[in-house]
Design a protein that fits this description.
The complex is a heterotrimer of chains A (299), B (317) and C (532). Chain A is built from 11 helices and no strands. Chain A is mostly helical and 299 residues long. At the A-B interface, helix 4, helix 5, helix 8 and helix 11 of A face helix 1, helix 6, helix 7, helix 8 and helix 10 of B.
Chain lengths: 299, 317, 532
């Protein structure tokens, strides 16, 4: 099925540029300020995730029944939650969960998808047809059921949430890379390589993979944002990570909704954290797409 | 064209069978069953014999293969059976919820398209100016806002500012359009915003491509409106990827709006999904998954037809 | 925050006074439609086989039971007549004879007689082959149900019982029509037809139920309402919004303290709050088949680690729990008085001492510091989540590193039944406070399949039987007390967390409904009326 001519297919970049990294970065920032802002926020987020242990003012698990639902103050900048736990601390630690889930799910999902997509395009014929049918099945399968099933079978926990988020990403990534790869597959030099008897793996590694790199990168950044949002949604539904692990979606669940008026800081700040992170990834990803796809470049 | 349509329709069957096999097995791998849940719940007097008796009645003691064949046989006769949890016919369980989900999906789509096309075109025409930036920030913000969060803000806003709450019970449009709209317009707006974000971005990049077409480039000197008018002809092609995104999103809305439905108390398919899995209602879950998969495949089929209609080469691939 | 809390307390107090006075002074007014929220989607229509209040709330108004608990009794323990007008108990407490009301009509116009009562109870206690009855176990002591004449029904028991009247007042035992059952035992799973104060109008799946007044209800002048509309709404935020937006008047299960406060803040005296201890409690099951929980020193350490009084006070602000209790709801006839309760392990006020003792016991049992185990919690937000977070935090205080796994209900019960956990949240909830019902689940695992801690304790079984057959109240109290000490202190088979607390903030227009310790009770709605 040519179905779901996928979301990102329309932008198959021709050749990814290489080298002169620094200059590229500087140029990117100047030409695409929005993208640069996004990248900066992502970098800060990553930094926070890495250093949460040092910069967080409290222990994320430390309860304080004397300071339950305390409003933002000098001692608790963003207030405390229903157990008297410091909201700022839990947001800082929560970025660990978000980044871990986001990066692992997006990397694994996009990479596996890319491998399947490239292989499907390269071998063509029956193999392609078979792979496409399997991918169709997974595409048509409702996402929420997949997540529900994975969590019911494996239980809550970061690892299982990653699995639940990654599985639906694979067929989507496969579709995108397949169509990019198909275009390259038709290139004369690939035919030449096959004719001169190079091994399949070598042709795929040398010629096909580098050329689908751009669409892979675009997809990766899109998936990153999606994965973080999905993790938050699943946690909100009680299908994500379990307490007392600090996680943004989990912080929005339960007490945050009940105290939405009396203690709005419990809902506002984790909500902002999610939005900001997803916003940043998308901003960066969008600009990356504009930059990598020659057809979208401004003249 | 007719041959192409038949071929495409036939290709749906293996996909649907694949989905059926997976959901059938998946539900049985998930621990716990409907009998356990019904009888081991809040009191503790049910004996193991009672549980086994009930399993037998539901046919859960039969070999898996037999259960599957019986289920498939039923579907071939368009008989989806009865819900294991409520005992009511599946069609009765699904009908009204399907109507609600369908209507909501259509409303959200209309809102999304009405927002996305003008915004996307505008952003493309003014690429890399503040207009472009504003549109992009607006649309990315839509992607970045968790829908459950937005829903809660909506409801609280209506309650606090207007001291008013949308109706809680679904009235079909043909019964009372005003009540119907009063209830569904809010979730449609909340969902439509996010949805429009996806479509806006796609419109923008599709438009950018169109604007690179040679004949439009040559007309560049003639100014903005001429470019727009010129590009109208090319817009038909450019709108295909947008159509794809809209269609995919539409299919997703049919069963994926769990949290929105909860927050706005909508009696739709998303909630039914979660409940049927929670109850281990095998028959209902299986029917729902098939239904949603069918909607997805069918919508994509329509998109493909549109492609084939616009670009005849596709038909002969 | 402090000020806001104080304000809320003043408001609640003012409203409580304001709300109670008029209902005493005012005459019930007829008419109007009660709109209420049901927080659960009911499965089949047959209360004999279902377990959820989602069946009781929208459908109990369509039915009657033989006896019922007094709708004005806050303790929910006083048994009064319903379809049976009087009863006698034989001297040996083994024969219960009920005299039935004359002239009671089913909604189809046919007359109710003892044949229907017998058919109903036979379905529950002695179901025909192939029909599963969920509550058979509750009535194992019944030898026979007899209908000697059309207006008498007799229950013969194998042993004397002090609590059987309560069982006959069970809100689950709706009286069905014998002829319909004779035709199809499963008829009532998909149809509704009773003798209750309201008649069934419609049920839209997943959406709502509608009932209208039964003009031929046996209790003349009742019901007061013209009808009711029960709206199914699973999300708690949506429920609160419905009450707040005055789209619904009441939700009969309960709200959290935060939800109560937000309603009172928003609506002031338009809201009346009723509260009661709730006969539900989260238990910690400790799997005796898994090391080190086979060692009672370890189990005792786990209960000693809990600062119950501080915990109950803190949790009562954020969750639907409030008081520290033993095996009976605090304040009820068989409950252990607080001073004596403090003698049980982990119930003492000196927390530092308890925790030192806990650490000593762990050391003695060879459990290393920082020992890690899993607490499997049922994935129900309220109050499982806050109680779970609290437990884990408490165990952390004695150097235990506890991981939480959250499992959704179906899986949770599969894991509990399969013994596939170390420690887990378990749950006990009864329709009336009555030791026979409340203690049954703690009998040995070979006697009841809901013993998830998986132990065999014959001494406990014996105490259960002794208290059930004691006809003298003081004697029964003594056995219940002994049972409690063995269960929670000597052996620590289970751990009790704070007692649930039921909070019903409702529209002040609603009168004639009294909160009880059970959300299964008092839902016939015949006494409910609406003021202008």
């Amino acid at each position: 099925m040519a179905v779901g001519t996928p979301v990102v297919t329309a932008d198959i970049p021709e050749v990814a540029e290489r080298g002169r990294w620094l200059r590229t970065v500087v140029e990117f920032c100047r030409a695409r300020p929005l993208g640069a802002i996004g990248a900066a926020i992502v970098a800060v987020n990553l930094l926070v995730a890495l250093t949460a242990g040092w910069i967080a003012p409290y222990d994320p698990l430390a309860t304080d029944y004397g300071a339950m639902l305390a409003a933002p103050s000098a001692s608790h900048w963003l207030g405390t939650d229903a157990f008297g736990r410091d909201v700022l601390t839990r947001i800082l630690y929560g970025s660990r969960t978000a980044m871990l889930v986001g990066f692992v799910a997006a990397l694994v999902g996009a990479t596996l998808g890319a491998v399947i997509g490239v292989a499907s395009a390269y071998f063509g014929g029956k193999t392609d047809l078979a792979i496409q049918r399997v991918m169709d099945i997974f595409l048509a399968f409702p996402l929420i059921i997949l997540a529900l099933a994975v969590v019911s079978i494996l239980g809550n926990g970061i690892g299982n949430v990653i699995v639940a988020i990654t599985i639906p990403m694979i067929p989507r990534a496969a579709l995108v890379t397949r169509s990019s790869a198909l275009a390259i597959r038709e290139m004369p030099y690939v035919d030449a390589a096959r004719a001169s008897g190079f091994r399949h793996s070598r042709i795929i590694m040398r010629h096909m993979l580098p050329n689908v790199m751009a669409s892979y990168l675009i997809m990766l950044t899109a998936f990153l944002g999606q994965a973080i949002l999905l993790e938050a949604s699943l946690s909100f539904l009680g299908l994500g990570v379990a307490e007392p692990t600090p996680a943004w979606g989990l912080m929005l669940r339960g007490a945050a909704v009940q105290f939405a008026e009396a203690a709005p800081w419990m809902a506002i700040f984790p909500g902002l954290a999610i939005s900001l992170a997803v916003f940043a990834f998308n901003l960066f990803g969008d600009s990356l797409r504009d930059a990598l796809d020659p057809r979208l470049r401004a003249q | 064209m007719a041959r192409y349509i038949v071929k495409r329709l036939l290709l749906m069957i293996p996909t649907l069978v694949g989905v059926a096999v997976i959901i059938f097995l998946l539900m049985r791998v998930v621990p716990g069953d409907v009998v356990e849940l019904r009888f081991a719940g809040e009191s503790s007097f049910a004996s193991k014999e009672t549980l086994d008796l009930e399993r037998k009645r539901l046919g859960l003691d039969k070999p898996l293969f037999k259960q599957f064949v019986e289920w498939m046989g039923g579907i071939a006769r368009l008989d989806f059976g009865t819900s294991m949890w409520t005992g009511a016919p599946i069609t009765e369980e699904i009908r009204l919820r399907f109507a609600l989900s369908l209507q909501l999906a259509i409303m959200a789509t209309v809102i999304a398209v009405l927002l996305a096309i003008p915004l996307g075109v505008l952003a493309a025409l003014r690429q890399d100016t503040w207009v472009d930036y504003a549109v992009r920030i607006f649309s990315i913000a839509g992607l970045a806002t968790p829908s459950f969060w937005l829903g809660i803000v909506f409801i609280l806003g209506l309650l606090i500012i207007f001291k008013w709450l949308p109706p809680m019970v679904y009235t079909p449009f043909w019964v009372n359009p005003w009540q119907n709209m009063l209830q569904l317009i809010w979730p449609a707006l909340a969902v439509g915003y996010r949805y429009s974000a996806v479509a806006t971005r796609m419109t923008r990049s599709a438009m950018l491509e169109v604007l690179r077409e040679d004949y439009i480039r040559t007309a560049r000197a003639k100014g903005l409106w001429q470019r727009l008018i010129l590009s109208r002809h090319a817009l038909k092609n450019a709108m295909l990827p947008v159509l794809t995104v809209v269609a995919l999103e539409f299919a997703f809305l049919m069963g994926g709006l769990v949290v929105t439905e909860q927050v706005f108390n909508l009696n739709g398919l998303g909630n039914l999904f979660v409940e049927s899995v929670a109850h281990r209602d095998y028959t209902l879950t299986q029917a729902l998954v098939l239904l949603v998969a069918f909607v997805f495949i069918f919508v994509n089929f329509l998109v493909d037809l549109a492609y084939a209609w616009i670009d005849p080469r596709i038909r002969f691939r | 925050m402090q000020r806001r809390m104080a304000l809320v307390i003043v408001l609640v107090a003012a409203i409580a006074v304001a709300g109670v006075l008029p209902s005493v002074a005012q005459q019930p007014r007829s008419g109007g439609e009660l709109v209420f929220v049901v927080p659960s989607n009911p499965p089949s229509y047959d209360a004999h086989r279902e377990e959820t209040f989602g069946v009781i709330h929208p459908m109990a108004p369509f039915y009657s039971t033989l006896l019922r608990t007094d709708p004005t009794d806050k303790t929910g323990t006083k048994v009064v007549p319903d379809l049976a007008e009087s009863w006698t108990i034989s001297k040996d407490a083994r024969t219960y004879t009920l005299k039935l009301r004359h002239g009671v009509k089913f909604h189809d116009g046919s007359e109710f007689t003892s044949k229907d009562a017998k058919a109903t109870y036979d379905k529950i206690i002695f179901p025909p082959e192939g029909v599963a009855s969920n509550r058979k176990g509750e009535y194992v002591d019944v030898e026979a149900v007899q209908a000697p004449d059309p207006y008498t029904v007799v229950f013969r028991l194998k042993h004397p019982s002090g609590s059987f009247l309560n069982s006959l007042a069970s809100p689950w035992n709706w009286i069905y029509k014998a002829d319909l059952l004779a035709k199809d035992m499963r008829w009532y799973e998909s149809h509704i037809m009773g003798t209750g104060p309201f008649m069934f109008v419609e049920h839209v799946k997943g959406s709502h139920f509608v009932g209208k007044k039964n003009p031929n209800y046996w209790d003349k002048g009742k019901p007061y309402l013209d009808g009711f509309r029960a709206i199914i709404m699973t999300d708690s935020a949506a429920q609160v919004a419905a009450i707040r937006g005055e789209r619904a008047m009441i939700q009969f299960r309960g709200f959290s303290p935060a939800e109560r406060d937000s309603l009172v803040n928003a609506l002031g005296n338009k809201i009346t709050v009723q509260e009661s201890p709730w006969n539900c409690v989260i238990l910690v099951a400790m799997n005796h088949d898994k090391k080190p929980f086979d060692d009672k020193r370890v189990r005792k350490a786990l209960t000693l680690a809990l600062d119950r009084y501080q915990g109950a006070a803190a949790l009562s602000k954020i969750a639907i729990v409030k008081e520290v209790g033993g095996v009976q709801v605090p304040g009820t006839p068989f409950a252990t008085p607080p001073a004596e309760l403090e003698k049980l392990a982990g119930y003492g006020r000196d927390v530092a001492k308890n925790r030192a003792e806990a650490k000593r016991l762990l050391k003695e049992a060879g459990v290393p510091d920082g020992f890690s185990f899993t607490y499997t919690n049922r994935g129900v937000p309220m109050p499982y989540e806050p109680v779970g977070v609290w437990l884990i935090d408490q165990w952390r205080q004695i150097g235990l590193n506890v991981k939480q796994t959250v499992t959704e209900s179906a899986k949770h019960y599969a894991e509990l039944r399969g013994g596939n956990f170390e420690t887990a949240s378990d749950f006990q909830c009864g329709y009336t406070v009555e030791p026979d019902l409340d203690l049954y689940k703690f009998t040995s695992k070979d006697r009841n399949s809901a013993n998830y801690s998986r132990y065999v304790d014959r001494e406990l079984d014996e105490l259960y039987e002794k208290q059930g057959r004691a006809t003298n109240v003081d004697e029964r109290k003594k056995f219940v007390r002994e049972f409690e000490r063995r269960l929670l202190d000597d052996e620590v088979h289970y751990i009790y967390t704070p007692q649930w607390h039921r909070i019903i903030p409702h529209n002040s227009k609603v009168h004639g409904w009294t909160i009880t310790p059970s959300h299964y009770l008092n839902q016939q709605l015949d006494t409910v009326w609406l003021s202008e």
